[in-house]
Amino acid sequence: xxxxxxxxxxxxxxxxxxxxxxxxxxxxxxxxxxxxxxxxxxxxxxxxxxxxxxxxxxxxxxxxxxxxxxxxxxxxxxxxxxxxxxxxxxxxxxxxxxxxxxxxxxxxxxxxxxxxxxxxxxxxxxxxxxxxxxxxxxxxxxxxxxxxxxxxxxxxxxxxxxxxxxxxxxxxxxxxxxxxxxxxxxxxxxxxxxxxxxxxxxxxxxxxxxxxxxxxxxxxxxxxxxxxxxxxxxx
Length: 235
Fold this sequence. Notes:
alpha+beta
């Protein structure tokens, strides 16, 4: 049994301000098991009872997990006074209170980004001890070499003497690489290539674990992830 206040349930599941959810309940817009409840503090069992808001059923999800194809120029943040964030791009039908990006992609980095309201899940995803692989495609301003492949495998030492974990570098074209890392230091991939005098012109994250970015998902678009999808992250 999972019990919640009625106003909290409506607010969280429908992304409504708490004050608005209370007002709508007072106005008789919410029914529980067919009965109109006008007391916002009413305690409901979200697993056992059926809740309708304005004649539409409200399904209970303790947490949501959203996969976004992050576009260039958008911040991996919950809010910003002047710049657009990934939360701003989430369609209204997927929005709810408390959403945040799991880890960060740089403003000009694109690709797979998970957005959730599950803090424990996010912590497991980004903690270095979990060794979750993250794969990127990078376009560089110079040529790659086999020596770089060897050095990435050893663990690149950054300019500030920070030692990175061993990474897999694959050469796709002369100046295009696939990189798989298991950590997420600040600007890590750009700094790793910087050690070899290369600049990153474009960077896209393609996968986290075995969870891949769908090829037909356009920039800024989102899909909900299910349990099977989430399980791929740990593979």
